[in-house]
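Example 1089, ligand iron/sulfur cluster.
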Amino acid sequence: MLTEATDPIATRFIAGGTNLLDLMKQQVEQPAKLVDINRLPLSAITELPNGGLRLGALVTNADTAYHPLVQGRYPLLAQTILAGASPQLRNKATNGGNLMQRTRCYYFYDVATPCNKRMPGSGCGALGGYNRVCGILGTSESCIATHPSDMCVALAALEAVVQVSGPHGERTIPMADFHRLPGNEPHRDNTLLPGELITAIDLPAQGFAQHYTYLKLRDRTSYAFALVSVAVGLELTDGLITQARLALGGVAHKPWRRPAAEAMLVGQPAEPETYRAVVQSLLAGSRGYDHNAFKIELAERAIVQALSQALNRSA
Amino acid sequence: MKSIKAALIDATLNTVETLVGHLPDPAPDPLRNAREFIGKPYPRVDGRLKVTGQARYATEHPIAGMTHAVVVHSSIAKGKISHLDTQAAESVPGVLAVMTHRNAPRMKTPETASLFNPVAGSNTSVPVMQSADITWNGEAVAVVVAETLELANYAAGLVGIRYEEEPAALSLEAEKGNATIPTLVVTQSPEVNIGDAKAALAVAPVVSDQEYETPWQNQHAMEPHASIAAWMGKDQLLVYDSTQSPPGVQHNLARMFDLKPEQVRVVTEFVGGAFGGKVAAWSNVPLAAAAARLVGRPVKLALSRAGVSMVVGGRTLTQQRVALGATLDGKLTAMIHTGYGMRTTKDVWAEQYTFPIRHLYASPNIHVLQKVVRLDRVQNSYMRAPGETPGSFALESAMDELAHKLGLDPVELRMRNEPDKDPTHGTYFSSRHLREAYALAAGKFGWDPQRPEPGTQREGDWLIGTGVATAFYPVQQLPVTIKARITADGHVEVSTSSIEMGVGLATVQTQHIAERFGVPYERARYLHGDTDLPMSQASGGSAATSSVGAAIHAAADKLTEKLLKLAQRNKQSVLRGVKRKNVELRAGGLYRLDQPAVGESYEQLLGASGQAFVEAEGSVPASALVLNMKTSMASYGAHFCEVRVHARTRQVQVRRFMSAFDCGRIMNPQTARSQIVGGIIMGIGMALMEEAVYDERTGRLMTPSLGEYHVPVHADVPEFEVYFLDEPDPVMPMGTKPVGEVSIVGTAAAVANAVFQATGIRVRHLPITADKLL
Ligand SMILES: Cc1cc2nc3c(=O)[nH]c(=O)nc-3n(C[C@H](O)[C@H](O)[C@H](O)COP(=O)(O)OP(=O)(O)OC[C@H]3O[C@@H](n4cnc5c(N)ncnc54)[C@H](O)[C@@H]3O)c2cc1C
Ligand code: SF4
């Protein structure tokens, strides 16, 4: 079954082109038509009446990260975006495109190898192959790929809401529901319907601007995708955690959150002892493959490190 | 009775001995202490051209009627093409041809270049697109030629290929049981036995005996392997190629297309990096020429980034064992270095990872043995300090392990085992200032001989560690011929087919010419990179500066004689009757040695004779490596490194890197430093991130782009401090020794040793990624 999302000859929107053009050059995607959306009026960052912020889908990653309101109210998002790609790419990459970027699974990119995501039913090359960059949580027998975005990890932690416009009108999709797990339809990265366009990403008022961090662990210091990353936002009152958000990148087909794990932090003193149970809850059910089992321990360490960094950060 | 193999080795080595009988320079070069031009930081002669975009690289030469070619690569490792569908691609308007084994022009099988046959000019002897056979995953199976690159790319995706697959040997680990002993390692025996190393190891009071592994690495020069091929009529071929060896490419193409070498001209003005990957031609070069013949128009063929990784061989994966035995006071009593690398069905190129141990440390008992494992992969080949780089990781890690076991400062351990003669050849060192290099770098670095226990030094969340390692790279000499011409207006021009791959060769030779002939810098000129010029073989082995230099020296001697003859013929000349022994080239002319003010300028000498110029050729032959020479000759260095490792997340950062080198006389501290720093950065990449990954089920390269194949970014490297002892070697031209490769040697070990000091964890399997430190 081919949906618009996998049909290699379907129509594609093109924004910054930093992902789509690469995929086309590799012949992973061969859209019959490109619709250039760059002239749509989606390039503004505006304040919302509820105290939140609306990020236009066509605002570049760079302009978003350096916007004074983002820097002031959502430093977690700014830090996260700046941990991704390179300055040149961030100048071109858009917010909408960032959500829609496709996995970096090596087999997905190589049309000479099998990949259920690229060609449903062809098999998963990564499962018995070189899967260092693949996931450890929420994987399936069909696909163990990760979503590679940094920005989305912070958006998940911030509980952003995706604004969508399509043939059937407009709708909103909470970040938690935007990306999906592979299940047996790995060709579907997300829940966007055919023809739907992301118009904006709304950030709620709560920005966790006091106690936050984005920790990205990777194979070189810059310009590499995350092996494991952690976005943390905390609210503290009198040394006790009153609200916590934790999202992981590099480990699953979507930014990984478990509200139950976050709840375990609430009412707790900000001390390392609290973390162990949280880590276990967040990583429960994780499974390593031939080349990525280390990600489980790396994720444990990253979560603890990120929490302590967030707590020690005085804005 | 000797085995046939042993006899063969002897015969080969004897050839080498005769080849090198008169090498290197017999008498010390008077220029080794010259300081007017040599030793100064002249900016690159081509710097302006490069930064203004005027320097033309291989595919930047405009030719009318140009077409563009794109390679289609095989997706299996071994078998046959069973089905080919080129129709869809061919029917794209603008596509001129889809070349496959069915319609490719006949090309003879290339011949693999070696020290004994450098001009063969090919890296492999695998036939190029002449049959349906596939011998590695990524081999070129089709070339699409079109009016534009975009069309060629598009059509390349339409070529339909099916294969009949055969089982392939793809894993070194799995095939190790079938390992064989190569005939030679470069020019040396794969095996060395001095004393009884096994017995000595068994009784040594302190032993370190470990296995080390270094990964596959691919070539990624900035300029990909790229060519323009244009046939001028049926039997004249012009090729612009990004190569380290225009004559090699010329002879390779002449052979494959049944031409005389004179019918092929190869031009290589500039090379955007090579690192050994362009020492000889890979299949992309004959394919460009074949495609040009097929379509009857010039063809431009630049391999894609992925294409370079598939068509061009890099470093083999190595598995090495280094066992060291020592007395309680740190005197080595046994050294064993053995291991495995790859070979292919057609060719064997054993990378010399056991060379450092053959020269670095004194030990009465030494055992060295290299083996190769046949795999169905692209041929491994030269890559910056091939062999010495992975070998030094194993050896210099092992020395650190031994020092730790002995409770001895690793610098001191090395000093206690400094040999006074070459440990395996028994020859004397022409120059060896490793002690001084260690002393200099240790002082600058602030080395603490009494470091705390590994894993105990902390700054906040970071563990701190320092490490050292020795750098080593042997002297070689390349076969070079140059022509030197002195003109009546007092200019000196030297020309040769040898190339400039970005290292600064043209700059330092311009300095050398000015110094050698005593002319102002502006009057010295160095022309290079064209087979129409006198033939010099490949640039490589860190030997071009001294080899070209020696050839210029030889030509200068001949020109001295020629100029003196002119003077003898001129009745008015103040040099009339003066003996050859009593004149030298100096101050823009020929002057007496005993009366330095007496002589004539080039203008006067040539003016009087009415000649526009005098010219002479100078040549030097190939040498084997240092080991076959009368003296043991090499560059040496001492690396000092400080890393920090995050206590929890295990991210590794190199904080400081300082090195001191005995690389002989430094021609130009600026270009030399740049070579050294580049090598160290490559070594840091090898230590921490660089690895080509192949799916062992299929032999498919999983890291075809620089997105997955990690090399260091700026944030990964610290400020470097590089010190040169600048001691001229007494027997080398201009006193120079190798500079280009020595600094990558030992770098990975220095980092690994520092990581051990920081964490207490010894990583013996590169690269040192966070997962290996959990
Ligand atoms: C070398 C490299 C390194 C990178 N490193 C990182 C990294 O470290 N971290 C990281 O997070 N990212 C990284 N990226 C990915 C980069 O962030 C994405 O490529 C970029 O965000 C995509 O945005 P774009 O506007 O260029 O999208 P495009 O390439 O234009 O589009 C990508 C996809 O999104 C769809 N699309 C675009 N806009 C919309 C819209 N408004 N509505 C619906 N669909 C839309 C397109 O149809 C297409 O399918 C890297 C990319 C490269 C090339
Ligand atoms: S993990 Fe997913 S993306 Fe990767 S090969 Fe398997 S199916 Fe394709």
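Summary: Residues 31-54+478-619 of chain B form a domain with the Aldehyde Oxidoreductase; domain 4 fold (CATH 3.30.365.10).
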